[in-house]
Amino acid sequence: MWGKRRGVLAFNRLHLGAICWVKPAASDGAQTHVSHTLIIGAGQAGLSAAAELRKRKYEGAITVLGAEDALPYQRPPLSKAYLSGELPLDRLWLKPPAWYEKAEVEVRTRTRVTALDRSASEVITSDGDRMAYDKLILATGGEARRIPIPGADLPGVFVLRNLSEADALSEALKTAGRLAIIGAGYIGLEVAASARKRGHDVTVLEAADRPMARTASPLLSGWFGAIHRGYGVDLRVSTPVESITGTERATGVMLSDGEHVEADLVLVAAGLVPSTGLAEAAGLACDDGILVDRHARTEDEQIYAIGDVARFELARYGRSLRLESVQNAIEQGKAAAASICGAPFDYDPVPWFWSDQYELKLQIAGLIDGADTMVRRGDPEEGKFALFHLKDGRLVACEAVNSAPEYMAAQRMIAQNISPDPERLRDSGVAMREFLS
Amino acid sequence: MAKITYIEHDGTEHTVDVDNGITVMEGAIRNLVPGIDADCGGACACATCHVYVDEAFKDKTGERTSMEDSMLDFASDVRDNSRLSCQIKVSDALDGLVVRLPEEQG
Question: Do B29 and A95 count as a contact with CB atoms less than 8 A apart?
């Protein structure tokens, strides 16, 4: 696997000469400037923007700078099938190396950007290179949040956001029996499920009074909590932690109530901190994310921000937010590319998410906050149900467990502002198609 | 290993060798066949890898799973031989497989 990655790097270096290249002199002797779009961040969002630019026949140069030692890859499996060992590394790549060559998209891996010089329209890399841009797309994503408690820096304490962190955790799990996870959000619970599959003892510690408290409805939270306990996870809610114990390396977690949970490894799964540092230092407006408009553009008309790092006004829900999802990475990347190509469209998605835990597929359409009514369809006891959330009669969200028809229909119903009859919605005998106009 | 022919909506054919164990969707991505988006990366969560399986291979590629069936229910221009290509595992038995791509995904 390493040989493969090195091969990719060699290819990248071969193409360095293409950056900011200027076309050969035209017949009248004048040089034509070739537009250059520079993308900082080689994740799903950055790749989506690059691919969409080419799809829209953008003729300028495209360079993608990535801090990691890897071509763009899928992050969702890192806590799921990749960690459980079901999906090998060579199936994580979003595109094969040949794609970049064919599309003339240059990716420079292991390249950090240290500053933006907006007045010169240049970025400065950790190698000291200055690279000029006509359009700049910030797709910097974020880093796993670390928590400021004693022991958080001990060996044996892990976070999970990128491939090298997943590899480190996976490697450490080979010689560890007991895993303690701080945080019962999606990453925490997905890792719990993957680690149980690998046979580990798993304890999950959550400060809030239910798992997935930030995004899921109480009923869904409770149901997933019970599933995890059924699979043998020691899931403890309303359980704040005081410190990670150990001197040479982590030996467990001290809870605020004084109880000690022993563990060989500790995973801190406390969410994401958006990487806004470059933008802030360059004077771009940020507020837990880089502020962008409905075309993914910042206040600087040359600069866009997309994916996990971008905060935008989601008109459909009347609120500003960051969306940490594959869908947002892809679609907001497309919105930025469309704008750069002179064909902007208003980005106003119905958000969607999924999570795989054990044999369950959770699919969520929309956002539940602000909803005033919940309608349940199907039977949680049977492991197959959907929770519909309505606001003033209108469908705003659907949480579906192993219920793809409900989820797929809900996506469309939300997009079409449909107000379904709750009684009929509850009735599994009424086909979901009937709710669509 | 199986030789698979992907036929784009405009008739462009791509015949490529695909390793056993990966999916028909991944075979397309790895061989730069356009027309399969696969936003979710093969998690059966997005229905953007829709293909039409050649009649001769309908039995060998198996039945749709119920999850797949539901996802396809809302895709555009679904036919009897519609499948999500992320749900078809490649094996020697699929050598010679022909799949056609729809005009649009989603």
Answer: yes
Which band of pLDDT confidence, cut at 50, 70 and 90, is reported for residue B39?
confident
How far, in Å, CA of A128 to CA of A118, rounded? 16
Q: Do B45 and A102 touch (CB under 8 A)?
A: no
pTM of the model: 0.91
Say if residue A30's pLDDT is above 80.
no
pLDDT of residue A11: 39
Render pLDDT for A128-157 as a digit per residue (tens, 0 to 9): 999 999 999 999 999 999 999 999 999 999
Closest CA to A214 of A369, A358, A353: A369
Fold of A146-270: FAD/NAD(P)-binding domain (3.50.50)
ipTM value:
0.90
Q: What is the pLDDT of residue A8?
A: 38
The yes or no reply on domain A359-435 and CATH 3.40.50.1240 is no
Q: For residue A411, which residues of chain B lie inside 8 Å, CB to CB?
A: 74
- Comparing CB atoms, the residue among A96, A326, A405 nearest residue B70 is A405
Q: Is residue B105 part of a domain?
A: no
pLDDT tops 80 at residue A72: yes
State the nearest Cα–Cα gap between A8 and chain B, in angstroms: 15
Of A76, A102, A405, the CB nearest to B43: A76
Task: List every span in chain A annotated with CATH 3.50.50.60.
Answer: 2-24+33-143+273-340, 146-270
CB pairs under 8 A between A and B: 48
CA angle B18, B23, B28 (to 5 degrees): 60
Residues of chain A with CATH 3.30.390.30: 359-435
- Domain A2-24+33-143+273-340: which CATH number of 3.40.190.80, 3.40.50.300, 3.50.50.60, 3.40.50.1820: 3.50.50.60
| B106 touching A (Cβ < 8 Å) | no
A72 in contact with B, Cβ within 8 Å: no
Q: Is B36 on the interface with A (CB under 8 A)?
A: no
Range of the domain at B91: 2-100
Number of domains in chain B: 1
Is the minimum CB–CB distance between B26 and chain A shorter than 8 Å?
yes
Quick check: A48 contacting B, CB < 8 Å? no
Give me A392's structure tokens: 């003033």
- Asked if the structure places residue B106 within a domain, the reply is no
| A431 Cβ under 8 Å from any chain B Cβ | no
Report the CATH number at residue B65.
Answer: 3.10.20.30
Q: Is A216 an 8 Å CB contact of chain B?
A: no
Mean pLDDT over all residues of chain A?
Answer: 92
The confidence score (pLDDT) of residue B38 equals 84
Q: Is the pLDDT of residue A437 over 60?
A: yes
B32 vs A102: CB contact, 8 Å cut-off? Answer: yes
